[in-house]
Amino acid sequence: MAELTTSVSKGAETFPALENQIPVAEIEIDKFRFYIRDEEDRQCSSVWFAHHRGNDVYVGALGLGGRLKLSMHRDQTCQCGMVRSYREKLPGNGLTATRPVRWKRPQTPEHGAVHVASIFFPTDFLRGEGVAKSTGKLKFSLPMAPLGQATEVGLFYSIEQPANLEPRFVRQLATPILYMTLPSGEYVSIVVRHVSFNALQVPDFSKIGSKVRPLDGAPPPGGHIENAHAILYNDHSDEQPGFSIVEVNGLTVARAG
Fold first, then answer.
1. What is the spatial distance between Cα 151 and Cα 31, in angstroms, rounded to a whole number?
2. For residue 180, which of 59, 99, 175, 188 is within the disulfide window of CB 3.0 to 4.6 Å?
3. Residue 25: how many CA atoms within 13 Å on its side-chain side?
């Protein structure tokens, strides 16, 4: 079970907009669903999930229907990309399946925490429509960063209890939101902060010259899709620890032929 920490209010001065959105009392949930939104509820991200099965932790965007996700495992193996069941369908449709990015996360320290991955939601690139709220599933909304910044959702592994780590996260201007207790004795903490964002991290899609082969759900020739979402992620490097995922949305995808 994922456990929402009891002391979120300790970081309220760091992230004041969370005070009225995250309950202070401890609760247990089987899957943490969250999204980023502005105060007027006009801009928002996709709905994302984070949960674990045993010692395996999974994070992804619900709108992708389980096709693409980040997974982190007890043997320190991590990967991000299309799931195998979906990749195996692509060659039959004449498409090349891109292999997931795989790497080894650092060993979990006895004291402190190690950063494994972050999801960035840059405000300037979140132009999508509001999230449908009729599903009946509990979702937590996190406040959108100011223009020119991004909301960063970071994932940290630790052996030390999350309650002891909270003051250290707060000193780094991050608010602890939730932690998962794994059977291995490790914890995965999810923390949130607003950070500056370099727009050059997002490619200019209008200048991509390579041909894109349509996947299932693509518009017919001459058609288009509005309010499309894109999930971008980097190749992991040992020289630059930590894995980055970026969501952009509000895109219009037109198919010429």
1. 21
2. 188
3. 1
DSSP string, 107-127: PPPSSSEEEEEEEEEEGGGB-
Torsion angle defined by CA atoms of residues 238, 182, 6 and 105, in that order, rounded to the nearest 10 degrees: 0
| Alpha-carbon span 102 to 228, nearest angstrom | 26
Task: Tell me the domain boundaries of the chain.
Answer: 2-254
**pLDDT single digits (tens) 160-192:** 999 999 999 988 888 999 899 999 999 999 999
- The pLDDT value recorded for residue 97 is 66
The DSSP call for residue 85 is: H
Residue 179 is encoded by which pair of tokens? 């932690």
pLDDT number for residue 129: 66
List of the chain residues with pLDDT < 70: 1-28, 65-66, 90-97, 129-136, 201-218, 237-241, 257
Largest CA distance in the chain: 57
Q: What distance in Å separates the CA atoms of residue 176 and residue 215, rounded to the nearest whole number?
A: 38
Tokens of 208: 């991509």
